[in-house]
Amino acid sequence: MNSTVGSLGAERLKAPPMSATTVRLQTISSPEAVATSSLRRSFWVRDASTREQEFQRDRELDDAIPLHSLQPTISAREVPFSITDASRTAAIITSVTLVTAISTLLNGLTTVALPTITTELHIPDSMQLWPSSIQALTTGCTLLFSGTIADALGSRFMYLAGTVLQAGFILGCGLARSSAQLILFRGLSGVAVSLCLPSAVSIITSSFIGKRRDMAFAAMGGGQPVGFSVGLALGGVLTDTIGWRWGFYIAAILNIAVLGIAIWGLPKEIDDRSAEGPQSSTWRHKIGRLRTEIDWVGAAVASASLALLSYAFSAITGSTADIRQPSTIASLTIALALIPVFILWVGRQERLGKPAIIPNSLWRNRTFTTICVAVFFT
Questions:
Q1: Burial class of residue 184, CB neighbours in 10 A (0-12, 13-18, 19+)
Q2: Cβ partners under 8 Å of residue 34, min gap 6
Q3: Inter-residue contact 95 to 266 (CB < 8 Å)
Q4: Name one GO molecular function term (predicted).
Q5: Considering only CA atoms, which of 138, 140, 165, 161 is closest in space to residue 149?
Q6: Is 273 in contact with 76 (CB distance < 8 Å)?
Q7: pLDDT digits (tens, 9 = 90+) for 84-115
Q8: Are 186 and 173 in contact (CB under 8 A)?
Q9: pLDDT band at 59 (very low <50, low <70, confident <90, very high)
Q10: Phi and psi of 17, rounded to 5°?
Q11: CA-CA distance, 104 to 107, in Å (whole number)?
């Protein structure tokens, strides 16, 4: 820095004085240069006899100021949070894989054990489809709500809450003594799964980059078919031996193990919003975000449409003749009518600059639209 100051000495004698406004503006773009200049603002008003003394003093001050202290502060949110520790990586990938595998495992188990469950719990013919299908129905209908709530409260918190609830509802399925209890707990377990899935995706994107992220997504996706296959085999074995209820007991125990892994493996920094302000991590702030940053009407309309459409399809799957039933016709009609209502609503929200759960402009992105269509048909 001494050589730099020396080389600029002659030019400094001819340079015009810097105003306070100029100093403030240049501080934003070049803090080092302004720090040097601000130390010499009085240089131009000194007489010639004292300039050399001032110049020497400024050189000493320049040497005393560490340059790193003049660098602009980078907020924590601008730096990507990435986990490189092998044990933490294994814990997160294991947790998100198992939490998805457990839900599909129980679907496979219920499919195989359904005849025995129907006989034992005296499930009427019109309700025999629901123990195996209601979990997927409730999961799909609440995903939008779960994802938006996770944005406000934090993905780690929502993931842990969903894991706790899933363990409790799975245990309730095993303890059910009537068809109504079994169907109720199966539906509630689907809601718990919906709390975990969007949060798991957010956790992966927040924790990993590069190959680790690819590995985590691949493991999470692979857990679904593997879990279903294991559930088919396990359901057959347990039904013929100790009973189908033990499948739910084992899944609940496994879910508690997943909870323990998640508590240890998921860093608290995932939900840290301190960079947005000192009050951003408080519960009052988070509840405020729930009120102001979530499109509750849009989420309700979309979820209602999905629920009615899924209900109609489930009824038709049980018996194609049910398509003529008034309830099925009404469900299909309302579900289809809610689609344009949803489009108009989110369009209004977007025009007014308010939160829209799925903005219409998002579909103009060809990559996003193509992926969504491909996943839908898959």
A1: middle
A2: 23, 26, 27
A3: yes
A4: transmembrane transporter activity
A5: 161
A6: no
A7: 778 889 999 999 999 999 989 999 999 999 99
A8: yes
A9: low
A10: -65, 150
A11: 5
CB contact at 8 A, 233 and 203: no
C-alpha R_g of the chain? 30
Report whether pLDDT(370) > 60.
yes
Q: Within 10 Å of residue 56's Cβ, how many Cβ atoms?
A: 10
The identity of residue 134, as a single letter, is: I
Contact, 264 vs 91, CB < 8 A?
yes
Residue appearing with tokens 């977007």: 350
Cβ atoms of 290 and 149 closer than 8 Å: yes
**Positive or negative, the Cα torsion across 68, 72, 76, 78?**
negative
Tokens of 161: 């809450």
User: Over pLDDT 90: what percentage of the chain?
Assistant: 43
Show the beta-strand stretches assigned E in the chain.
Answer: none
By CB atoms closer than 10 A (0-12, 13-18, 19+), residue 242 is exposed
Q: Which two tokens stand for residue 115?
A: 């005849």
CB neighbour list of residue 74: distance below 8 Å, 6 or more residues apart? none
Would you give the DSSP letter of residue 272? -
User: Tokens 């814990």 sit at which residue?
Assistant: 91
Of 60-69, 122-131, 255-264, where does mean pLDDT reach its minimum? 60-69
- Tokens at residue 171, please? 């245990």
Question: 3-state DSSP call for residue 8?
Answer: coil
346, burial (CB in 10 Å: exposed 0-12, middle 13-18, buried 19+): buried
Confirm if 104 and 227 have CB atoms less than 8 A apart: yes
Residue 296 banded pLDDT, cuts 50, 70, 90: confident
pLDDT at residue 10 is higher than 60: no
Per residue in 107-152, pLDDT (tens digit) is: 999 999 999 999 999 888 878 888 888 898 889 888 888 888 888 8
Residues in CB range of 204: below 8 A, 6 or more apart: 92, 96, 213, 216, 217, 220
